Amino acid sequence: MRVLGIDPGYAIVGWGVVEYAGNRFAPVDFGAVCTDAGVPFERRLDEVYTGIKEVIARTQPEVLAIEKLFYQHNQTTVIGVAEARGVILLAAAQAGLPIYEYTPMQVKQAVTGYGKAVKKQVQEMTRVLLHLPAVPKPDDTADALAMAITFCHTNGNQLNRYTRRVAGPI
């Protein structure tokens, strides 16, 4: 199964596509959609939407895993991230992708086995699971890959049924 993980934002949207089969992960592609601070906000949202649509069209994921929005200290930031999430979810819905949302604690638990792991531990375990030479940069990209891994770990039984249905009886 091919999973697109997204770490939402409006300055940097991390994304990572992971192939998952037989309890093994393989990175397909990853990167970030970046927008400039000096650009009007509505234009930045358009850039995020267009960038994610392009990633979906190019990588052909079967599902989207995205970070669930949680309140941060800066109310202005959380509203902007919510609006960016909206255009990301729109792009996924238009592509017919099922959408799964995870909290940061769920990601930490799924990737490291410890719900209170620090960010660096999650990023290092993501690197190890995907057999990458280094933790992807920017951090948002590594976080997006961790999101994809979280979907695979938390939906393993569903994926096994999906694989058998597509591949046919053994």
TrEMBL record:
<comment type="similarity">
    <text>Belongs to the RuvC family.</text>
</comment>
<dbReference type="InterPro" id="IPR002176">
    <property type="entry name" value="X-over_junc_endoDNase_RuvC"/>
</dbReference>
<dbReference type="InterPro" id="IPR020563">
    <property type="entry name" value="X-over_junc_endoDNase_Mg_BS"/>
</dbReference>
<feature type="active site">
    <location>
        <position position="7"/>
    </location>
</feature>
<comment type="subunit">
    <text>Homodimer which binds Holliday junction (HJ) DNA. The HJ becomes 2-fold symmetrical on binding to RuvC with unstacked arms; it has a different conformation from HJ DNA in complex with RuvA. In the full resolvosome a probable DNA-RuvA(4)-RuvB(12)-RuvC(2) complex forms which resolves the HJ.</text>
</comment>
<keyword id="KW-0460">Magnesium</keyword>
<feature type="active site">
    <location>
        <position position="67"/>
    </location>
</feature>
<feature type="binding site">
    <location>
        <position position="140"/>
    </location>
    <ligand>
        <name>Mg(2+) 1</name>
    </ligand>
</feature>
<dbReference type="Pfam" id="PF02075">
    <property type="entry name" value="RuvC"/>
</dbReference>
<keyword id="KW-0378">Hydrolase</keyword>
<feature type="binding site">
    <location>
        <position position="67"/>
    </location>
    <ligand>
        <name>Mg(2+) 2</name>
    </ligand>
</feature>
<comment type="function">
    <text>The RuvA-RuvB-RuvC complex processes Holliday junction (HJ) DNA during genetic recombination and DNA repair. Endonuclease that resolves HJ intermediates. Cleaves cruciform DNA by making single-stranded nicks across the HJ at symmetrical positions within the homologous arms, yielding a 5'-phosphate and a 3'-hydroxyl group; requires a central core of homology in the junction. The consensus cleavage sequence is 5'-(A/T)TT(C/G)-3'. Cleavage occurs on the 3'-side of the TT dinucleotide at the point of strand exchange.</text>
</comment>
<keyword id="KW-0255">Endonuclease</keyword>
<dbReference type="InterPro" id="IPR012337">
    <property type="entry name" value="RNaseH-like_sf"/>
</dbReference>
<keyword id="KW-0540">Nuclease</keyword>
<protein>
    <recommendedName>
        <fullName>Crossover junction endodeoxyribonuclease RuvC</fullName>
        <ecNumber>3.1.21.10</ecNumber>
    </recommendedName>
</protein>
<keyword id="KW-0963">Cytoplasm</keyword>
<feature type="binding site">
    <location>
        <position position="7"/>
    </location>
    <ligand>
        <name>Mg(2+) 1</name>
    </ligand>
</feature>
<keyword id="KW-0234">DNA repair</keyword>
<keyword id="KW-0233">DNA recombination</keyword>
<feature type="active site">
    <location>
        <position position="140"/>
    </location>
</feature>
<keyword id="KW-0227">DNA damage</keyword>
<dbReference type="InterPro" id="IPR036397">
    <property type="entry name" value="RNaseH_sf"/>
</dbReference>
<keyword id="KW-0238">DNA-binding</keyword>
<keyword id="KW-0479">Metal-binding</keyword>
